[in-house]
Write a structure and sequence with these properties.
This protein is 19% helix and 33% strand. The mean pLDDT is 95.
């Protein structure tokens, strides 16, 4: 386990049965799992952020496993994903970037048995109760419009100034009743993570 102090984990699962005045063919599950962690570099400048990169690697698998289990699906049934961070005001955006970008992706992809597309992300600074829309798209082809979406994470008592909320999101489907055209899931080649 990486050198990380977790205060709590918040898991939210949505199951969508109807949207736009009609039922969906198959309920769509969406999950966001957020860890509230201590920021070891709060209140000071730190050149070497490798400790936070290691935290990202650990949380990539740990939080994704929680999300897949909470949705009650097999890893390969995950269709879209996203990641985000809310950095307490004694930290800096780069602390969230160190967690989200260098090492988190590989274990997240392994935990869902795929993921050729870039994992969309968002980060911001704020205090307790700051909301963040975690962007979502299809895990193997970023241009699949049916899966362009977002899921909100908001924790009333986090982040404290010396904390970071790290949120990973997974779904087992795209938006309900998509009808704006574009590349369909059934049409992807899955070679470059785009199409």
């Amino acid at each position: 386990m990486a050198d990380v102090e977790i205060r709590k984990i918040v898991t939210t699962v949505e199951e969508i049965f109807a949207e736009g005045f009609c039922k969906v063919d198959k309920p769509i599950k969406r999950c966001v799992v957020a860890a509230v962690i201590k920021n070891p570099f709060a209140g000071k400048y730190q050149e070497d952020l490798s400790q936070l990169m290691d935290v990202g690697e650990y949380l990539g698998k740990y939080l994704t496993d929680i999300g897949v289990k909470a949705m009650g699906v097999k890893p390969e049934e995950v269709e879209s994903y996203g990641k985000g961070a809310i950095i307490g005001i004694a930290g800096e955006l780069e602390h969230g970037a160190a967690i989200l970008h260098p090492k988190l992706g590989k274990p997240m992809r392994e935990a869902i048995a795929g993921g050729k597309a870039i994992i969309p992300s968002a980060k911001k600074a704020g205090g307790p109760g700051t909301p963040l829309d975690v962007p979502l798209h299809y895990k193997d082809a970023a241009f699949v419009r049916t899966h362009y979406d977002a899921i909100e994470v908001k924790i009333n008592d986090a982040p404290h100034p010396d904390e970071i909320v790290v949120a990973l999101a997974v779904t087992d489907g795209g938006r309900p009743h998509p009808r704006i055209g574009g590349l369909q899931k059934s049409e992807i080649k899955g070679e470059d993570g785009l199409r």
